[in-house]
Amino acid sequence: MLFAFLLTVPFSPGFAKVAAADRTLFYVALTSAAVASMFFIAPVAQHRILFRQGLKEPLVQRANLYGMIGTLALAVSMNAATLMVIDYLFAGPLPLITAAATTGLATWLWFLEPIILRARNT
Question: Cα separation of 115 and 73, whole Å?
Fold first, then answer.
């Protein structure tokens, strides 16, 4: 959904007024959303092609790795897009504070908390 929305942004009338730094953030958001989509879709496509080939274990391991890479790329995309929009709307430190907060929240929820729980259970 984020990727599809980002594909439409440059065609809106206000995009021509976006500063160079925000265009860079847009580039990061768009390309990382594309990468996230590819990594999230890859296990399904590979499973369809390799169905009943006796490769379940490598497919599951690869799907797990791709899921982690996709999650990281999605976090980058979401945070870059959020920073771009907040920076467009507000001056001062608010955009960077917001970006730090959303990055910290994604890092905690998606990576650190499960890593800590996993370490406790081993």
Answer: 18
φ/ψ of 63, rounded to 5, equals: -60, -40
Inter-residue contact 78 to 108 (CB < 8 Å): no
Q: Is 60 helix (H, G, I), strand (E, B) or coil?
A: helix
Band (pLDDT 50/70/90 cuts) for residue 14 is: confident
- DSSP character at residue 6: H
pLDDT of 39-95, one tens digit each?
Answer: 999 999 999 999 999 999 999 999 999 999 999 999 999 999 999 999 999 999 999
Give CA–CA dist 84/74, Å, rounded. Answer: 15
What confidence score (pLDDT) does residue 122 get? 82
Q: Which SS3 state, helix, strand or coil, does residue 85 take?
A: helix
Of 90, 75, 83, 80, residue with least CA distance to 40: 75
Question: Which residues lie below 8 Å from residue 56, measured CB to CB, with a gap of 6+?
Answer: none
Q: Which of 24, 110, 102, 99 is nearest to 69 (CA)?
A: 110
